[in-house]
Amino acid sequence: MRVVNIKPRRGVSTLIGAIPILAILILYAIYASARAEANPNDKVLPTFTAMAQAVQQFATQEDPRTGQITALSDTMASLWRLGIGVAIATFSTLVIGLALGVVPLIRSAFGPVVAIIAVIPPIAVLPILFIAMGLGEASKIALIAVGIAPFMIRDLAAHVAGLPVEQFIKAQTLGANSWQLTLRVALPQALPRLIDSLRLSMGPAWVFLISAEAIAADVGLGYRIFLVRRYLAMDIILPYVAWISLLAIATDALLLLVSRKAFPWAHGAGH
């Protein structure tokens, strides 16, 4: 049997995927323990015990400055900024992407503008946002929205424009106008694609969030990571990075679940 034809079952696939992760964790534990024995003050590779103690402190003790639990306040602040920025980007994508995909005249007029904006590095726009909108929440949220919306708009517009033209012709034969074509033909097929684009954009969205918080913030996951780095506090940085990864994984799983439940036809019978 050829290797390309081997398809492990779900349980076996999960086990196979867990092996490299466990191997990395075991190797890290061995190497960190060895460094700790050689130098108890080593901060580069903290042991799991040291990280657990740091996590317990940040997850249970209140920040004297804010009076809130540090890890909780950082998480809530970052998720709020991320949620608002992603929501703005998603709504903008749905409106603009549908318009560009359905109406050729709009696509001809504004497609090049979207394409130009999409190639501008969002991080390069951050100083402009800080100058125009200040150092408050608006600039951080705007960076997330501006950072992911152009890609999502281009992807959704291309998907809608690539729908079979026969569908639009049949709908117009039955008397559908432009508004009905958008809502009854394009929108149902655009929504699962929108969720896929959002899933692909969540990684960059986290990057833009952490970047903005690292430069100008007084609370947040990115702020905390760059605050403690001056003390070489890897026992805090690594758990925070792991926590961000878990939040990203949970968000992706939630979006996938919503897509499969709401649009099972878009995933095929084999998924």
What does this structure look like?
This protein has 271 residues and is mostly helical. It folds into two domains: 1-39; 72-266, MetI-like fold (Orthogonal Bundle), CATH 1.10.3720.10. Helix content is 78%, strand content 0%. The protein contains ten helices and no strands. The protein has helices spanning 10-38, 48-60, 70-102, 104-118, 122-133, 137-161, 165-173, 178-215, 221-228, 234-262. α3 (70-102) crosses α9 (221-228) and α6 (137-161) packs antiparallel against α8 (178-215). The longest helix is centred in the C-terminal third of the chain and has 38 residues, at 178-215.
The CATH homologous superfamily of the largest domain corresponds to MetI-like
Largest sheet properties: none
* Named CATH topology of the largest domain: MetI-like fold
Write down the secondary-structure element order. Answer: HHHHHHHHHH
The radius of gyration over CA amounts to 23 Å
The residue ranges in which pLDDT falls below 50 over 5 or more consecutive positions are none
Rounded mean pLDDT is 89
| Shape label | globular
Outline the secondary-structure elements:
Blueprint lengths: L9 H29 L9 H13 L9 H33 L1 H15 L3 H12 L3 H25 L3 H9 L4 H38 L5 H8 L5 H29 L9
Features:
10 helices; mainly alpha; 2 domains; MetI-like fold; 0% strand; 271 residues
Summarize the structure.
With 271 residues, the chain is mostly helical. It is built from ten helices and no strands.
